[in-house]
What does this fold into?
Amino acid sequence: MRALFYILLIRFKNRIKSLVKSPGALILIVILLALLLLPVLTGDHGSVDERTDYRSMEEVYAIMTVFYCIAFVMGSYSGLSKGASLYSMPDINLVFTSPISAKKVLFYGLIQQMGTSLFVGFFILYQYGWMHNTYGIFMGGLALILLGYAATVFCGQLTAMVLYSLTTGDERKSNGAKAAFLAVSGLAALYLLISVYPERGRWLETAVSVLNGFPMKLFPVGGWAQSAIVGIMAHNWMNLAFGLGALLLYTAILVGFMAKGDVDFYEDVLRSAEITYSAIAASKQGRFDGAMVQNVKVGKTGIGKGFGADSFYYKHRLESRRAKLFLLDRTSVIFILIIIAFAFFMRSAGIIPA
It folds into this structure.
């Protein structure tokens, strides 16, 4: 295990050295830190109790529920098609070929993924300005929200890894898992719609109440993470015990299954890592064909337009269109539908009602 910790330490030191040798990246980091610290240092540092015009924190808790649930569903759903990897290609080339037990390699990936999850949610800290002015949240509260998001992303990656190892190569299992995901998400959305729609004129208050209710806290991972973080912020130790206990139990079950179950996660991780690495390499080179897709249905072939140099333009346009859904990628479509739903329920009150 000391060899794996040595790799983590050397990787961290090399990243620091690369920043020193790259003035452009160092300047960017300084600017990002300045943008983060400026609102904190120049903002109102008075006690929240001195103001009475802050909006209710219940709205923040409701936003956390939606945010965490969407992050978990989108992160873990990918495991049904391409999996999720806790490792990079250098890890696979160096660690997987070394005489180290599979359990230690698994925990090495988990430790590495924890840091990655925190880094992914770093953008949350930049919401300090408007959240402090609207709800009176200080940086400590945002740090807790970031912690909950990191836990959600971490569990989503772990779930995706397990689902991929269980369903890969078996279309029946894959379709069953997809149906289960859609059923759970659909039931939660239907429950919210049925509870909110009859309350005409009080949609916002009702939606906040429903999202903070106990049934939504039962939503896998997303509801548990919200319960744990809200328990800390609101000093509700019952919520904290429920959410934290559920998260720890869920993580322990998945990790135990991967470590002791009859699952060869090396092969599954290798495949998903290759897909991720291929997509990153293609993005750096400006190509759309770098993603390693499976089960491609062959339809119309050929570019069909262009002559000479013009054919390159039509080639890139065709590749861009085929890589998206209705001219937009799947993530954009999901967020557009969410925005339309919120706009419908809040059409009479506005984004931030007075």
Remarks:
- The chain has a mean pLDDT of 76.
- Residues 55-286 form one domain.
- The chain has two domains: 55-286, 304-354.
